[in-house]
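Is this the right way to post structure tokens for a design question? Let me know if I should format differently. Anyway, here goes:
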């Protein structure tokens, strides 16, 4: 879930395999259904209080997209006991920082404080859950904020519409077909009552997990958790409709004209299984092999040696229900998108027909181990991972054991995953080109 759309982090480790300490935690559930995870780490006087709600863009109505992301902003507006505009002032005045983020599957809020402000962090998150003020002035204010974010990050960002174009073509019935930021016309048309109903349905204790991580006293933390969250009423259990996409059995194409670019990009996209599967993790390893770093197969051959592309990448965009495997490239003149795609396809065919060498495999394992260690290197990351493994995977202890799944993946598994999911007859080819008036200038 932490992969960038345009580039994966280059985490090469060529020496000894990294090692990580086991992440200790305690979990329990309050009577109102709120799941609680505590992780003690006294290495620094820092505390993280975070709440992840099981609501994302996929939980929206097709004519009301963007609600979950909108609430990422709206629930900072204020509460019955935190005046409008005071949330961030309280956090910064107490030496902390905070943020939130939304995906298609969940919404995550967190604060990082000096550990002597743990009670404050718990109180603020309980206020967000129990006493949010959702009124017209807050809705109108955040509507403008979201519109500006869309203009900056999507409408006016070079290649900013790539993910949206792939999603709408790859998914016909699943809500993954729309973007997390949504359609601004849907937000404009929504009534205050609709926003209030969305909050009542999803932002409830039995649809959330509270993670407290850092320099904490376990017994005292439990008392405060009960004090601030125990009285919040349980909500009506959330029921979700299952959406199943028909298999892709024939290559299909699409074109998108982007007014913000001068160089075309070619994108291929393949539908992949849910993030919780072993195959999804195998495809993560395929991505590392193909494009993670300058010594990776695609970069070395197509960018470095043949100088056919300015940039190339491959990554598995994993989500709770489905994933999408991307291969993208920006051709270097005079090479065409078709020529670059042919070279990229040849590397995939090579994976499908030949076992990778033992040397490559060892390097790949080292990369995965190193990434695993880095993903748990900060207490903020540990808190995020604990919440994610509980809410989207159903197993908190994957924070310690998921690496064993990666270690169990063989060279044969890599070859079979490439054959199973990356065939040309089950993909989208997207020509992402400059707008015609832009190209003529």
């Amino acid at each position: 879930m932490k992969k960038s759309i345009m580039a994966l982090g280059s985490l090469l480790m060529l020496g000894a395999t990294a090692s990580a300490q086991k992440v200790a935690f305690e979990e329990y559930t309050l009577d109102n259904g709120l799941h609680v995870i505590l992780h003690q780490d006294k290495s620094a006087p820092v505390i993280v209080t975070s709440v992840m709600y099981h609501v994302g863009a996929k939980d929206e109505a097709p004519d009301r997209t963007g609600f979950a992301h909108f609430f990422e902003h709206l629930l900072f507006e204020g509460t019955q006991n935190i005046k409008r505009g005071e949330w961030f002032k309280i956090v910064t005045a107490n030496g902390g920082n905070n943020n939130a983020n939304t995906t298609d599957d969940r919404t995550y809020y967190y604060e990082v404080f000096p550990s002597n402000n743990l009670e404050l962090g718990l109180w603020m998150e309980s206020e967000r859950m129990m006493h949010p003020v959702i009124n017209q002035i807050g809705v109108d204010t955040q509507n403008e904020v979201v519109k500006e974010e869309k203009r900056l990050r999507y409408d006016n960002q070079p290649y900013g519409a790539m993910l949206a174009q792939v999603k709408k073509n790859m998914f016909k019935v699943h809500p993954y077909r729309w973007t997390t930021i949504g359609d601004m016309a849907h937000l404009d048309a929504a009534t205050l009552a609709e926003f209030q109903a969305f909050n009542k349905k999803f932002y409830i204790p039995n649809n959330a997990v509270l993670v407290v991580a850092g320099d904490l006293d376990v017994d005292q933390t439990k008392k405060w958790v009960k004090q601030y969250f125990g009285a919040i009423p349980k909500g009506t259990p959330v029921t979700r409709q299952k959406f199943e996409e028909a298999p892709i059995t024939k290559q299909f194409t699409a074109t998108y004209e982007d007014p913000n670019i001068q160089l075309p990009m070619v994108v291929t996209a393949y539908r992949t299984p849910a993030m919780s599967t072993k195959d999804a993790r195998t495809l993560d390893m395929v991505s590392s092999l193909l494009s993670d770093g300058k010594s990776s197969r695609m970069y070395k051959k197509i960018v470095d040696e043949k100088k056919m592309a300015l940039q190339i990448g491959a990554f598995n965009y994993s989500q709770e229900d489905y994933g999408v495997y991307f291969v993208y490239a920006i051709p270097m003149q005079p090479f065409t998108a078709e020529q670059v795609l042919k070279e990229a396809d040849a590397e995939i065919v090579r994976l499908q027909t030949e076992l990778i060498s033992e040397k490559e495999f060892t390097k790949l394992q080292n990369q995965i181990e190193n990434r695993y260690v880095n993903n748990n290197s900060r207490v903020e990351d540990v808190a995020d991972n604990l919440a994610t493994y509980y809410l989207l995977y159903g197993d908190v202890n994957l924070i310690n054991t998921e690496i064993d799944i990666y270690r169990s993946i063989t060279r044969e598994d890599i070859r079979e995953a490439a054959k199973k999911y990356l065939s040309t007859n089950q993909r989208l080819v997207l020509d992402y080109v400059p707008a015609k008036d832009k190209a003529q200038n």
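Format looks fine. Someone answered above. Worth noting: The domain at 252-440 is CATH 3.30.830.10 (Cytochrome Bc1 Complex; Chain A, domain 1). The chain has 16 helices and eleven strands.
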